[in-house]
Structure to design on (465 residues):
């Protein structure tokens, strides 16, 4: 069809953006002239945007959304008449804000928004625009005039088109035994069975998940390996939502490429429930697992509806240690319900379990994000801790009852930012000093180990929302 479409990504945690490759394949197969650009490592495509009728911007996470707003404003300058669509989880969560008029009374940041399984709505939107029809005619497309729920119908998953994206070698690498290996990225499923209240996936998918056909996943891995990838990140919200499906893919990956490694994300409770599977995944080439520990406070874990306890976290560590699979633990250490004692206990627990190098220092500074439509807003006591909506920050404000916690969070965030690239063990010790200083206590001396004999496997870009 005679219509130019530009797909943009702004931040995908250092991965080649599957969020562009997948819709690019769908649009191209339908006959549209579509091109994709990753603004994280490419220049803004001014010429292509100037000639486009539709610009669609991927917003899978909060950081990506904030960067996407800046990109959209640049798009408006270059091509004031172009239709701008934001798609992805954070697009739908913030749809009303994105579709609202600007402060100056001009056009909004976005003309339409798509959430959930976005490929088909993007295709339908392109078709309607090509025919000169209103964007609301496309199913699953939200506009300022029409509310639309996330598109949660099973979609067709063609082989992602990565042919015009930057090479895999330009993205994050696996650091393993002193070597750096190019890392590819794919997903074997979307959505999640679980309902953790702070997770942005929950308001969009509501406990549903969709399996991507194994043959599609494996073909996508194959094209990335042939382009130089030696490691694959499975970016599913939870790789073990479908353990049989996950094992099938891991077994095939290992059979086809015995030297390739991979990492995946899964919940603590899935580690505890699937001990034999964890062991087999290690044998099949798993280099590490990402798991959201979040807190060592039972009160906070219950509030977040995590589905695990502190005892489960210790059990998971035992299972992972037995399997020889290192963990990269993620945390939400600053919430309205986390006390200063809780924070210090978390640091003590990390140190005593010899996990300092298994926790990216940025994780120690994470402050709970409460975007519009968050399940956290359903709490009866929200008026006790919830502040106003920060429209530019795309999050509700909140303030801790204990001012020491807000001050500590700012101090840790500053330390982490300034200490990027420094020794993680030393940085951790400095965070401990900040916490104990805030509590007016002296940091106790400990004989607990502070570092493993070798740094655990990790990617060169840390996980961050």
């Amino acid at each position: 069809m005679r219509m130019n479409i530009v797909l943009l990504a702004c931040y995908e945690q250092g991965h080649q953006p599957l969020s562009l490759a997948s819709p690019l394949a769908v649009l191209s197969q339908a006959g549209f002239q579509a091109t994709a650009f990753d603004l994280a490592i490419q220049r803004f495509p001014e010429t292509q945007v100037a000639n486009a009728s539709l610009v669609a911007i991927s917003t899978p996470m909060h950081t990506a959304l904030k960067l996407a707003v800046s990109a959209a404003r640049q798009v408006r300058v270059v091509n004031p008449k172009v239709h701008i669509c934001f798609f992805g989880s954070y697009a739908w969560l913030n749809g009303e804000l994105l579709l609202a008029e600007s402060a100056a009374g001009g056009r909004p940041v976005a003309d339409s928004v798509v959430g959930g399984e976005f490929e088909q709505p993007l295709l339908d939107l392109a078709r309607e625009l090509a025919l000169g029809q209103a964007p609301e005619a496309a199913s699953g497309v939200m506009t300022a005039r029409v509310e639309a729920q996330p598109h949660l119908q099973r979609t067709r998953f063609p082989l992602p088109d990565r042919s015009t994206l930057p090479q895999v070698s330009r993205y994050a690498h696996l650091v393993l035994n002193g070597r750096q290996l190019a890392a590819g990225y794919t997903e074997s499923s979307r959505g999640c069975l679980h309902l953790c209240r702070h997770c942005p996936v929950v308001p969009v998918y509501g406990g549903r998940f969709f399996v991507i056909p194994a043959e599609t996943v494996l073909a996508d891995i194959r094209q990335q390996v042939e382009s130089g990838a030696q490691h694959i990140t499975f970016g599913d919200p939870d790789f073990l939502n479908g353990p049989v499906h996950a094992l099938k893919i891991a077994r095939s990956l290992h059979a086809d490429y015995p030297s390739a490694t991979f990492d995946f994300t899964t919940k603590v409770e899935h580690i505890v429930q699937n001990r034999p599977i964890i062991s087999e995944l290690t044998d099949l080439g798993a280099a590490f697992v990402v798991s959201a520990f979040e807190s060592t406070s039972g009160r906070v874990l219950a509030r977040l509806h995590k589905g695990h306890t502190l005892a489960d976290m210790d059990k998971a560590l035992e299972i992972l240690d037995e399997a020889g699979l290192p963990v990269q633990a993620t945390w939400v250490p600053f919430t309205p319900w986390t006390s200063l004692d809780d924070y210090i206990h978390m640091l003590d627990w990390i140190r005593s379990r010899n996990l300092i190098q298994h926790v990216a220092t940025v994780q120690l500074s994470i402050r709970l994000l409460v975007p519009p439509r968050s399940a956290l807003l359903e709490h009866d006591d929200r008026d006790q801790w919830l502040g106003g909506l920060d429209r530019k920050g795309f999050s509700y404000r909140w303030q801790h009852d204990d001012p020491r916690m807000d001050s500590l969070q700012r101090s840790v965030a500053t330390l982490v930012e300034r200490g990027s690239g420094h020794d993680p063990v030393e940085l951790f010790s400095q965070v401990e000093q900040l916490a104990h200083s805030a509590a007016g206590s002296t940091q106790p001396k400990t004989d607990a180990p502070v570092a493993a004999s070798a740094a655990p496997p990790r990617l060169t870009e840390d996980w961050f929302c």
